[in-house]
Structure formats: structure tokens, C-alpha cells
Amino acid sequence: HYRNPVVLCLSRVDHERIKAVGPDRAASEWLLRCGALVRYQGYEKWQQDYNGLPTGPLGKYRIEAINATNSCIMYRGFEYLDGLEHVTEIQLRKCIYIQDECLQRLSETKNLQKSLLQLKIISCGNVTDKGILALHKLMNLEYLYLSDLPGVRQKEKTVCILQQALPSLELELDLD
After folding, report:
1. Which of 14, 20, 86, 106 is the most buried (most CB within 10 A)?
2. Which residue, 43, 1, 47, is CA-closest to 27?
3. Structural domains of the chain, with CATH
4. Does the predicted TM-score (pTM) go above 0.85?
5. Within 10 Å of residue 110's Cβ, how many Cβ atoms?
6. Contact 54, 43 (CB under 8 A)
7. Between the CA atoms of 66, 63, 98 and 137, what dihedral angle is there, to the nearest 10 degrees?
8. CA 57 to chain CA centroid, nearest Å
9. Which 3-state string (H, E, C) describes the chain?
């Protein structure tokens, strides 16, 4: 029986579920339902099968990396990311629902401000300079890769402001 992932991604954040299974499990469920992949701390394999999510004691599986390539993650579910304390890398590639507000929300997430080291934003057509500039709150970000973002129009200015805010940031660009 087919379930539309966009409809599942539109559903409200389930706070009871977060309390019951912990933030990492609840976020894993949301991310996988939306077509993203997660990798847990201490594991090399990417988790992609919702039905194959590992079970175990609360807090055993901690999300370390998120690959949202071609996923339908959107602003509405970003609240699931609030409780994640171990995410060091996120890739947003070909995410049609990712826009500036998502990046702003990402950069205002206290735990991600501490843990996130690498971020890749590729082929997300609704991202503009405003969204990229919002990333300045990710104080521990070490590496940012930006590619194929037609909405980013003031590339030099945006990069300059971001580099001033995050002087140790390694910024790699593939923007035309």
C-alpha cells in the first residue's frame, strides 16, 4: 500500500512520539518517511529503510549525519531536529521544499549550533542569499559547500559577509 511521502512530511510534529522514543528515533522516523537517509554515531552504514530502523534502549542510536538528497523535508518538520545533539554533517541536495526559512531555522537550532561541522547545500532552487546569510549562527561550522543555487544572486557579497562572521569556515563554491 503506497503512502505519499509529501503527505507524511506535511504532518505535524508529534511531541508525544518524541517523548516516547527520544529525539533521535523520532527525527529518524520523520527523515526516513520524507526520503532522507541518516547515519548513526559509531556506524558506517546509512539507514534508509524506515521498517529497518534499529531498536534498542532509548538514546542508543544517535544521528550523526543526515543526507536529505531528493527528500521532501520541509520547514514544518524541522522541529524534529531540535533535540539532536550529535549531528555533525547535513547534506541538502535537490530538496524542492527547502527555502530560506529552513536554513534560518537550522541555524537557530541550539544543538546544531554546537554540533554541526559540515553542511552541503546543492541544487535547492528556493534558497537565496538571505538563507545562506542566515547560516552565520552555526558558529562551529567548519565546511560549507554551495553548488547550483540559482537563487543566490549576490555571491561575492554573501560569501564575504559569511566569511567575516565565521572566519575559520572553509567555503567551497560551485555557483554560476
Report:
1. 106
2. 47
3. 5-174 (3.80.10.10)
4. yes
5. 10
6. no
7. -110
8. 25
9. CCCCHHHHHHCCCCHHHHHHHCHHHHHHHHHHHCCCEEEECCCCCEECCHHHCCCCCCCCCCEEEEECCCCCCCHHHHHHHCCCCCCCEEEEECCCCCEHHHHHHHHCCHHHHHHCCEEEEECCCECCHHHHHHHHHCCCCCEEEEECCCCCCCHHHHHHHHHHHCCCCEEEEECC
Measure the CA angle with vertex 104, ends 162 and 53; round to 5°.
115
Quick: pLDDT tens for 148-166. 999 999 999 999 999 999 9
Q: How far apart are the first and last CA of the chain?
A: 43
Query: What digits encode the pLDDT tens for the residues 72-122?
Result: 999 999 999 999 999 999 999 999 999 999 999 999 999 999 999 999 999
**Three cell numbers at 98?**
527547502
Spatial contact of 90 and 66, defined as CB atoms under 8 Å apart: yes
